[in-house]
Design brief:
single chain; 448 residues; mainly beta; Immunoglobulin-like; five-stranded mixed β-sheet; 20 strands; Arrestin domain containing 1a
């Protein structure tokens, strides 16, 4: 270097990989053989992206700058002979994308130091690059859960004659991977033709798009595995594995000029059947415990409980019969109570008392019937005011006094039948003294 024996940049702890938002610290070391007049010694840190239409060209057609910071570590004066050290510190923006280097563009980060000398003197400069890694968490990528699936059907043509079709289906076990993981590829080939297919293959492909006026797509194969052929009329399931080497991540967040995509290409050599399975390459692997599908919301309390029956509510189950004469209607069964198990049991079927010829139905006022719905069958012998003597004979007169039996039966409206006396109780058919033999017939009565 002439007057300079050493002029270099050193990062603290020899660190070369940084993350967005991190501080970069280091020193500039200068070893001068003789005194040097200088106007300033400056250190700058910058990051940018440049793309071009020619392969491996550095004359950028388009550029994108992310940051450019400069500090002065020494003012105007004389740099004496000997060794000098100048520290520096920069803060990397949190929005800076990951470093990348491709055939038609790159994302570069570097620290530059230069000695600004007076006019007609030689300037001195040096630089050192560093790498920026912005971690891509695959768990935060949309639509990342589940396998990547695809299917295609292709006509099998031999000598310009269609001999049948070939159905190709393929899938991967996941959609996101990190370097070092294994991609499980499963393919199903159904050869519905009369010819044997060519060999099948699965490849991990990388496609880099450089966003210019006319976009440039740089596609290259990263890894490939190959399988056998499928005979005519056969259906074969093929499973293979692809190990992912160290690769740039799928998404360059913060960069608008370069786009990176990965996919698995599954194809047959003959006929020309091809399908692609998109995958993502990141830095933080997927958490397999998490589920991609959203669980259905549980039913609300009202829906889970269902309709609630209230025994004290009006008798909606007992519809009011329509008023109007109907000749000899059939007896209707008593409605069942919809009360809960802890409520009173329902009453026995209510008897229907039809009137004489052309009689009317029961009255719309059904208060007595509603009352009977709250009385159990066994409660008749224990009803208040109801007394059944245990030793009562069938022909023995009933005890005098109100018994309260009529309250258990519905009233009749316009009926010609005679109502039973109030003081008449129903006979006790369970007594042993009640005659159990059938009465004599008409002929037997005449003979006697």
């Amino acid at each position: 270097m002439g007057k300079l024996q050493e002029f270099e940049i050193a990062f603290d702890q020899n660190k070369l990989v940084y993350t967005p938002g991190e501080s970069l610290t280091g020193t500039v070391r200068v070893h001068a053989n003789q005194a040097i007049q200088c106007k300033a010694i400056k250190v700058s840190c910058n990051g940018f992206c440049g793309i071009t239409s020619k392969m491996n060209d550095t004359a950028w057609a388009m550029e994108e700058q992310y940051f450019n910071n400069t500090v002065s570590v020494a003012d105007k004066g004389t740099l004496k002979q000997g060794e000098h050290t100048f520290p520096f510190k920069f803060l990397i923006p949190a929005t800076a994308p990951t470093s990348f280097e491709g055939n038609y563009g790159r994302i570069v980060y570097r620290v530059r130091a230069f000695i600004d000398t007076p006019r007609f003197s030689k300037d001195y400069n040096t630089e050192k690059s560093f790498f920026l890694l912005r971690l891509l968490n695959l768990n935060e990528v949309p639509d990342i859960w589940g396998p990547s699936c695809s299917a295609v059907t292709q006509q099998f043509t031999y000598m310009l004659v269609k001999t049948g079709t070939v159905v190709l289906k393929a899938q991967t076990d996941m959609k996101g991977y990190t370097p070092g993981q294994v991609i499980q590829v499963t393919a199903s080939i159904h050869n519905q033709s009369t010819k044997t297919t060519g060999h099948m293959a699965a490849s991990l492909m990388q496609r880099v798009t450089y966003e210019m006026k006319k976009p440039i797509h740089d596609v290259k194969m990263i890894a490939e595995v190959e399988g056998g052929a499928v005979k005519a009329g056969r259906e074969v399931e093929w499973k293979e594995q692809i190990i992912i080497p160290p690769l740039p991540q799928s998404s360059l967040v913060g960069c608008e000029l370069i786009k990176i995509e990965y996919y698995i290409k599954v194809n047959l050599k003959s006929p020309d059947v091809l399908l692609t399975l998109p995958v993502h390459i990141g830095n933080v692997s997927l958490d397999k415990k998490r589920c991609s599908k959203k669980k259905e919301a549980p039913p609300t309390t009202e829906e889970a409980a269902g309709p609630v029956s209230t025994p004290d509510a009006p008798t909606s189950s007992m519809s009011t019969p329509s008023s109007g004469p109907t000749p000899k209607p059939a007896p209707r069964p008593a409605p069942r109570s919809r009360m809960s198990s802890h409520g009173s049991p329902s009453a026995p079927p209510a008897e229907y008392h039809p009137a004489a010829e052309g009689g009317s139905l029961m009255n719309e006022d059904f208060s007595n019937k509603r009352q009977s719905q709250l009385v159990s069958p066994n409660a008749f012998s224990y009803a208040p005011g109801l007394f059944f003597p245990q030793n009562q004979q069938p022909n023995r007169p009933a005890p005098s006094g109100p018994i309260g039996v009529t309250c258990l039966y519905p009233s009749l409206n316009g009926a010609s039948m005679t109502a039973a006396p109030v003081n008449t109780a129903p006979p006790d058919y369970g007594l042993s003294s009640y005659p159990r033999e059938a009465p004599p017939s008409y002929i037997e009565s005449c003979d006697t």
